[in-house]
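Worked example

This section walks through a single chain of length 230. The input is the sequence exactly as stored; nothing has been trimmed or padded.
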Amino acid sequence: MLTPSSNTVLEPATAALLAATPHITAHFQRLRVLSITLEGGSTGQFDAGPMVAAAEMLADAKVHALCWNGTSGAWLGLEADRAICAAVTRATSIPCTTATLALHDALHALGARRVGLVTPYLGAVQAAILANLRAEGFVTAGERHLEDPGNYSFADHPPALVTRLVGEVAAEGCDAIAIHCTNFRGLEAAATVPGVAVLDSVAVSLWGALRAAGGNAASVPALGVLSQVA
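Given that input, the structure is written out below as tokens.
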């Protein structure tokens, strides 16, 4: 897992998802990410160079797949993530995915068309994510965001708040809801909001990494609805 440096959620959350699955292990390498805006200094955090350097360190551990466990492709566009994956695989010969590529794969696998979105991000970042979802053929339904530039601060928002926001979006009608920030405490919401597929980005990243490694998501029941998706 290529991990944003200021993220304090995804490592313990991933460990919790894998707690009952000891034959699958997750390994982490950090790269510098401090804020989430559309300004050049922020978007430059997601250049391929630091990703490749982090991936090469993880490759020493003979991992079976690599995943950029950050959501930058959601606002920078899927081609940005595809370019990262291509550079990482070229350098390491290890298959690579990202949180955002895995989200789109999951939405397609679930047959979801109307997608709700919950994040802590600034309005401009949220608008870019919604535009990219529409560009990929989805209909954007309800959305909630918190106008937080993050990145460390995203973890300070309590799970109860995330659950409330997800419930509000679900009430507006959608096939699936993406909680798309890997430093946001969305796993509880994903487990407690009934009647709609709620996709937390930490779980989505793990699901995507398992698929990239040729693994079976059904062996990780903690993934919830994703454990039923090949």
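What to look for: The mean pLDDT is 96.
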